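Model the whole thing, not chain by chain.
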Amino acid sequence: MIITKKTLNRRTLLRGLGAAVALPMLDAMSPAFAASPSGPIRAAWFYVPNGIDMRNWVIPEPGPLTSLPPILKPLESLKSELLVLSNLTANWGRPHLVGAGDHGRALAAYMTGSFVHQSVSNLKLGISADQIIASEVGRQTALPSLEIGLEETRQAGNCDNGYSCAYAYNMSWRTPTQPMPPVSAPRALFERLFGADNFTSPEDRARRLAMRRSILDSVLESTQTIQASLGPVDRRKLDEYLTSVREVEQQVARAEKDGVVIDPGMEKPFGVPAEFGDYFKLMTDMLFVAFKADVTRVATVMIGREGSNRPYPEIGISDSHHPITHHQKNPVLLDKITAINTYHAKLFGGFLQKLKDTPEGDSNMLANSMIVYGSGLSDGDTHLHDELPTILAGRGGNFFTPGRHVMYQRETPVTNLFATMAQRMGVRSEHIGDSTGRLAELSLS
Amino acid sequence: MQFGFGGPPLTGIVYNTTLSRPDSALALALLYGLEGKREARVGAVAVSENSLGAAAFADVVFRFYQLGQIPNANRIMPVGLAADKPLPPDSPAVKAVLARVNDKGEPAYRRGIHKVPDTSEISAQLRNAMAYLADGTMVYVLSAPATYLARAMNYPGVTEQIKAKVKALVICECSQPDVLAIRKVLAEWPSPIVFMGRDTAEALTYPGSTLDTDFAWAPAHPVADFYRAARSMPYDAPALDPAAILYASRPAEFQLSDPGTLEATDSGELRFLPGGAGKHRRVLLDPAKAPALLATMRELIAAKPVPPPPRRRFSPEELEKLKKQREEELKKREEAEQKKATPPSPL
């Protein structure tokens, strides 16, 4: 960090005609010697629907991560940044006395650690881990939390044996009855992050959209003013940041232009890239920028809604995802599930690599992050809600000791992991849902 | 861990044991004997103050009573183990069971627990087990230090769950070195507490001389092996834990004292003080009934594994009818909930 006498308010925005753009964390925003040299700590959850082919996920013994199982192979170069956690459980996802409806419960119980009330109209759940954290940490950023979904959302109707679609389509719950619907349209996400509609009159917004003018062009004057007040390092940082914003903006524009050739076999909103991999990258690129700019420190990414039927033609799988997870040990179907799981891991790895490659403070963005990758189901065929596939990526501000596989006792609530993350972010809440404490062994120091 | 039998809900028994006495092994056999007769279901088995091998033994006994392949992991009963402090070595009785091999030199018993992560975190398990059982059907049998039960009581929502689910906590007369924990349980447990004293166990002493006869049907039986290796044979074992489990399933076979107070001394001994404004009771046994009850207990302990009831196959017509019934039921429930949520019109 370069110490200069120049200071800039943490919440400074680049403002212009019909737009406002948040800034990344700059040295000028840190009073000399007062701020953490590492940068903010962030938490994110990536949810994989329909479970995992556990044959190709399980690591038999605890200890240092040496060779990774097939599904995790795409993360090989990042294994020094991963904690693979075994045997965690989402107890309230189980059938208990209710019976069927595992997909209806899996996602909701995973994030909240709460009983999922079986109803189509009368939602009752708990507060999700991200929202418990956001309620305390969110005051420090423009957006308390960010909810991203890579599938269209439904908030009503019966999605699984009397469970409302709201349970299967929402990771985040602000209150036991109020979900936080994820943003799935790239344009909507971009505008939520960078369009700053709060600062825009309807007339300005309409004019800008009509002109198809770049948001960055709109704030050009403001950018030049701020640049003049910055030191050379901050100027470079700002330039890099604005470049990445522009790239994302161009991707969004391209996606909208390409929208006419969307595969008609899938339900997609206008502006979504035809290939899932492009979609994933686009949305997580925006998350990356949001983290970099410290627009938010808490995010959820629903790779698919629970029970997702998305096919993956780009990797040669034209079957719907959910039906093939009921594989009944059919090796052909199992191989397809492995292929989908590996594809997701590869895309996730791309996001992690970007965080790792981005210096921040004395280390990098990944070192300051806690990124959970997992599912509320292990085996999708028998609907197991224990032995959940779970990865914690990042070091949470050089606190965790990654590069290891940790095996807990069975029945250890997955919410114990979330409670540990919440504690790391300074949240005072003692319990998250059904958590029974903090996870041990995440740090060796 | 789904063991639905159909019909009215059965008593679910959660057994927290040290597995340090021969009668605790007999209690496991009794549990599965009751389950085989569809009189009770095993809610959970949790082992504290003992070794990894002791938990493996509990798992061996569970698997012994499952005939054929266990269809999937949902059917495997997790065994809890208190592993938050260094574990003691395996006892000779546990070693004898786990080391036994068949004619081919292979392990005589199926085993799913080899390392600590194969066991369950005990307090979470004691809490989670409640979710599987219908309201008012659960009995906790505590024959171990109350440490982990007291810890589970601290979790959010557990008191309400206990109130709804647990019809009784049966505390066996055993040492309670964690005095704070047992006192917390005795003071705060929100459902009835009954005390199973050693005197009742003495009246139901298992005769070691009958072991070979009782288990003659099994060429190898883990509980019999445990019993034989625990002490020099033949010996008789006061059936403290089996009596508690039998009470959990068949309370009508016993009597209860007038209310009194169960308390823990500073040295961790349990004492039942009759009278006063106590809210606990002691389990009593009519001496005249003891021989018959002991015979019943022996029969249940030595019961053979029973295959699960066959799954009924429905015809397509029946399935369609059931589906419609379920949809109607859900619709009615939704309507009732919506009605409840809508305030009545003042007019």
